[in-house]
């Protein structure tokens, strides 16, 4: 188990205050997680407290470098992947509706 803090961290100190293991340390290079202390809040909380309070997406990552708060997770804005999926879906719906409708200008009485 090993989380780490990336350079996206703004140094707000919130994670350090809530860590039940006191695993978050600050130094001249910013904040870091002492791997030997961090147990990812297992046995203490359902979710890692550092990530639960962190206001910055991608500031805390797991051992596989996956953000605990990935892009879009805190803003309510869709991620790039979701935007692409929504766009493709809208194109399909538009095409399906277009196939069922008369061509532009047809079927209209002026």
Automatic annotation (TrEMBL):
Concerning Pfam families, the annotation shows: Fer4 (PF00037)
Q: Name one GO molecular function term.
A: iron-sulfur cluster binding
Kindly give the PROSITE patterns that the UniProt entry links to this protein. Answer: 4FE4S_FER_1, 4FE4S_FER_2
Give the InterPro entries listed for this entry: 4Fe4S_Fe-S-bd, 4Fe4S_Fe_S_CS
Residue ranges of every copy of the 4Fe-4S ferredoxin-type domain listed in the record:
1-29
UniProt entry keywords in alphabetical sequence: Iron, Iron-sulfur, Metal-binding
Q: What is the name listed in the Swiss-Prot or TrEMBL entry for this protein?
A: 4Fe-4S ferredoxin-type domain-containing protein
């Amino acid at each position: 188990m090993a989380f780490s803090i990336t350079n996206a961290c703004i140094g707000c100190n919130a994670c350090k205050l809530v860590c039940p293991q006191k695993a978050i340390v600050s130094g001249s290079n910013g904040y870091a997680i002492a791997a030997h202390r961090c147990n990812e809040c297992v046995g203490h909380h359902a979710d890692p407290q550092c990530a639960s309070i962190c206001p910055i997406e991608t500031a805390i990552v797991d051992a596989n470098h996956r953000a605990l708060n990935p892009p879009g997770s805190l803003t309510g804005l869709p991620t790039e992947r979701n935007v692409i999926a929504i766009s493709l879906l809208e194109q399909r719906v538009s095409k399906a509706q277009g196939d069922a409708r008369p061509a532009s200008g047809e079927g209209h009485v002026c």
